[in-house]
Amino acid sequence: MSVSNLFAQTGNIKGKVIDKKTKETLVGVIVKLENPSKGVITDLDGGFILNNLPEGTYNLEISYISYSTKKIKGVKVNADKTTELNIEMEQDSKQLGEVTVSETKVTNTETAGVMEMKKSSSIVNTISAAQISKSQDRDASEVVRRIPGVSIVENRFIMVRGLADRYNTVWMNDACAPSSEVDKKAFSFDMVTSGLIDRMLVYKTASPELPGDFAGGMVKIYTTAMPQKTNFMAQYQSSYRDNSTYTPYYHTKTYSNDWLGMGYKDRAIPNGTPANLNSSNYSTSDINNFSRSFNNDWTIYKQRSDPDQRFNTAFSGVIKKGNFKFGSVSAINYAKTYQTFNIHRQFWDSTKQETDWTDIQSTGTVRVTAIQNFAVSYKDHKIEFRNFFNQLGRSQVTQRSSNYLAGPNERTYAELYDNRTTFSSQLSGTHSFFDGKTEYTWTGGYAYNHKDMPDYKRITYNKQRNQPDSAYYTSIPSGSANITNGGRFFSNLNETIKSFNHNIKQTIKLWNYSFDLNAGNYFEYKDRAFSAREFGYVIRSSQQAYYMKFLPLDQIFSSVNVGTPGGFHLDEQTKSYDKYNAQNKLVSTYLAGNFPIGMHIKLQGGARYEYNVQSLQSHVNQDTLHPSIITKYWLPSVNTSYSFNFKKPKEENKNYKNILRASYSKTLNRPEFREWAPLYFYDFEFNAGIYGSLYPSVVNPTGGVLKIAEIQNYDVRYEFYPSAGEYIQFGAFYKTFINPIQQVILFSGGGDSPAFTFVNADNAIVKGVEVDVRKNMAFIDKILAIRVFKNFNVIGNISLMQSNMNISKVINQATKTPLQGQSPYLANGGIYYQNDSTGTQISLLYNIFGSRLFYLGTINSASIGEMGRKTLDISISQRIYKRIAFTFSVQNILNAPFRLVQDVNRDGKFTLSNNDREVMYYRMGAYYSAGIKVNF
Questions:
Q1: Which among 165, 196, 167, 192 has a CA at the least distance from the CA of 181?
Q2: HEC profile of 336-397
Q3: Whole-model pTM over 0.85
Q4: How far apart are CA 537 and CA 860, in angstroms?
Q5: Within a 10 A sphere around the Cβ of 279, how many other Cβ atoms?
């Protein structure tokens, strides 16, 4: 029987999709029938075929990243015949006979992400919303660590190619993202819920259009503004953590606004408190009254730790009318989490142990995240307005006990509440003219970051080891307060970032040669105001005072003991350098060109000019400091790629599977405000003080500003794209640093607490290789003649790195060490299973990184390193009804410990052998989550 007789009542639609301008075939284009629902993806030659279609008329939708989606109506299919289509995709909207073309852009599919990576002039890695949904990662910190060469520090800060967070820049929706930290340049990736991400890109090489202040990676996070369709989603998830959930959870007094993460208002310095509590204008009675007005409740409460709760909801809508389209995306996410860890802490000098503590640390976190995005498009013009808001409140209680047998028993308590409010807004436009030959894009950005630490309390009790617990007493002084014992710290940070960037792209055609020119500017103004106040309890020496110091924590500062005759009162220890203002003005101009050379070579090059003014106003003792540093830099860059096939294609319209890239660029790393500021802050976690470089120290006796680090970057990469959504990449990089900024330990031994400050090293190099693979397993089905593996995809990437740094500012002794934060290796591996017919998704993901320098040591104190860890996660999603899915995941299955090690033997390696000593140790526990997700 012939095939035509067998399918007598059916026909086919066959076609090829190409770029109208370049005539290149487009691989990975999604071609779908509207009714019945059926779709295919174009192959390596841009071709597709829809088989066995009943005779009739059909509507097709063709979508592809960075191209207008086409809706082709009225395609006729006749029995025993194949209808052939040649489809040219472009950005313009027009009529093709009886075919209606509607414009949109697809950016969040896995294929779209791969194609954006393939077409980029720079070396870039991408991850799409489709891939994020498979892993069930909760936030951007878990998403970004799946990218080659990327790891996460403290579960929220990014490290690219082993370079610390300071060497990486983050933008949200083409505008600078605010730093969430006081002490360093660091965007907290855990603020962005994964379900709100359209796509994420990590640029590893510079180009003139990108900011010059990065050396590891430039991360761009995009949230959706123009949805493809109207949709409502709601998701609820509950989570259990081993050795934490249902165990004792310790906390201080709670307030009505804590459930919104805004409890800082209830813990603030009371209204009416004078600007300086120790002013001679106030009598003893006044000081007592002010002391009583503070919340003097230091009680630590105990309850059961409940499972973590998360709720997400999002609504996206789109209205289309002719060439006009309006879209809106709204989302709200709420999370309430608890965790309690037992943390072992130690510190050593070169000969003996200095401290040995065990902490019981309970942390409760409330996070509220909201997104409201709008987009409107008409023909070749689009305006987008994106808004991101994050509110986080964190309550933490640490109960520390000493295990150090050579000293007395010690119990220390720290009670902390901090608040972070982050708002980021961008208004952007894209405009195309002259049949797409001219394109103008612009983005205005505003970001606001507020961090409040109201009432950070610390107190220590001691007794001799052979005495009963009733002998514990606290050494509250009779003179000036000791802020580390009975101390109360209040701080407030407000930072705004205003920015505007715009770019004009012009396609120029001379005879038969066509190339693109890009020119633009970037303006940014950053303004920060930081202030802190420090108080501590004091009590005049007396018999009554002696006995009051033996009172337990829940009684010692009660209302009958504070602000009363013979009782405790507050003494202010705020210094002139406990506040600073800082500003940064950046004006950038760039010019770049994309020049094709023949059919195989593309050259992109140009230069960026950055004019920057960094200023700070503060004090050291009675001296006023107001440094203002002007810098001017030319930052050249060049990226070139050679595209080819090993076999000669049969047709002229080529889709190249192989790309060889090479690049060079110069970039910078500017010091952060906090790294300059002479502010002193006591870090209870490490029992250490932190100073900025303007504060005199052993490594810089007169204090001073830090120099800007200059980096030369060299990269090569080979990329192979065997089919849509698949790739294999091999890369190598080499970087040289002049004046890299490092955080160093200052420690004199003999029981003194360590301190940290910031210095410029002399120079450093970082070099490494990377391999990244993404592959569908359908080829196994072909070999074995089965249909089992087509739904499996594997990913794997590994980065091997080495760094060497020279520094001569460590007590005037030249030292060679790895660059701070650099890991010798990073690796990710994963297996994804997706069966659309059953609605099943399963992923198994593995991550590992090698030991890295955490704090740079000095002659008197060895360096501290973070030992490598392994993580293994599994997630499952199962559709249980048409629009309802059940989700389950287990993270951190291996429960590898977080461990800091002190390099006592000074060999530059961080191990538990060869006399190296453990500084910190704890396990987070495996984390189990189950939830339900509904889509309408």
A1: 165
A2: EEEEEEEEEEEEECCCCEEEEEEEEEEEEEEEEEEEEEEEEEECCEEEEEEEEEEEEEEEEE
A3: no
A4: 33
A5: 11
Strand 56-63 vs strand 628-644: parallel, antiparallel, or unpaired?
A: unpaired
Write the secondary structure of 49-117 as one string of H (helix), E (strand) and C (coil): EEEEEECEEEEEEEECCCCCCEEEEEEEECCCCEEEEEEEECCCCCEECCEECCCCCCCCCHHHHHHHH
Distance CA 658, CA 382 (A): 34
Bridge partners (DSSP) of residue 886 are 878, 932
**What percent of the chain is helix, strand and coil (3-state, nearest 5)?**
10, 55, 35
Q: What pLDDT score does 765 carry?
A: 93
Residues 503/441, Cβ–Cβ less than 8 Å: yes
**Cα 254 to the chain's mean position, in Å?**
30
Read off the DSSP letter of residue 134.
Answer: H
The residue type of 871 is T
d(CA 422, CA 612): 25
Q: Which two tokens stand for residue 770?
A: 């990377």
Distance CA 714, CA 734 (A): 5
Separation CA 372–CA 619 (nearest Å): 42
For the chain, domains (ranges, CATH) are 3-100 (2.60.40.1120), 107-223+615-936 (2.40.170), 242-327+372-574 (no CATH)
Q: Which residues pair with 452 in a beta bridge?
A: 419, 492
Query: Cα-atom radius of gyration of the chain, to the nearest Å?
Result: 30
Q: Which of 412-426, 442-456, 791-805 shows the lowest per-residue confidence on average (mean pLDDT)?
A: 791-805
Residue 914, judged by CB atoms within 10 A of its CB (0-12, 13-18, 19+), counts as exposed
Strand partners of residue 609 = 589, 634
In degrees rounded to 5, what are phi and psi of residue 554?
A: -80, 0
Q: What is the DSSP letter of 420?
A: E
**Identity of residue 400:** R
CA 16 to mean position of chain CA atoms: 40
Q: Rounded to an integer, what is the distance from CA 275 to the centroid of its chain?
A: 37
Structural element, H or E, at residue 16: strand 10-19
Q: Which of 272-286, 500-514, 811-825 has the highest mean pLDDT?
A: 500-514
Torsion angles phi and psi, residue 468, rounded to 5: -75, 170
Residue 836 neighbours by CB under 8 Å, 6+ apart: none
pLDDT at 363: 96
Q: Please tell me whether residue 827 adopts helix, strand or coil conformation.
A: strand
Is 543 strand, coil or helix?
helix
Name the token pair of 272. 């009416």
791 phi, psi to nearest 5 deg: -90, 5
Q: How far apart are CA 601 and CA 616, in angstroms?
A: 47
Q: 866-917 pLDDT, tens per residue?
A: 998 999 999 898 988 888 999 999 999 999 999 999 887 777 788 887 778 8
pLDDT in tens, 817-841: 888 888 889 888 889 888 878 888 8
Q: At 245, phi and psi to the nearest 5?
A: -65, 140
**Buried-exposed string 609-622: b where 16+ CB fall within 10 A, e elsewhere:** bbebebbbbbbbee
C-alpha to C-alpha distance for 585 and 611, rounded to whole angstroms: 8
The pLDDT of residue 171 is 87
Contact, 72 vs 50, CB < 8 A?
no
**Token pair 């050249």 in the structure block, residue:** 636
| Sheet with 82-89, edge to edge strand ranges | 47-54, 10-19, 82-89
Burial letters for 442-475: b for 16+ Cβ neighbours within 10 Å, e otherwise? bbbbbbbbbbbbbbbbbbbbbbeeeeeeeebbbe
DSSP-derived letter for residue 281 is T
User: In sequence order, what are the beta bridge partners of 33?
Assistant: 38, 60
Q: Is the dihedral of CA 549, 550, 555, 560 positive or negative?
A: negative
Residue 921 three-state SS: strand
Residue 434: Cβ-neighbour burial (10 angstroms; 0-12, 13-18, 19+): exposed
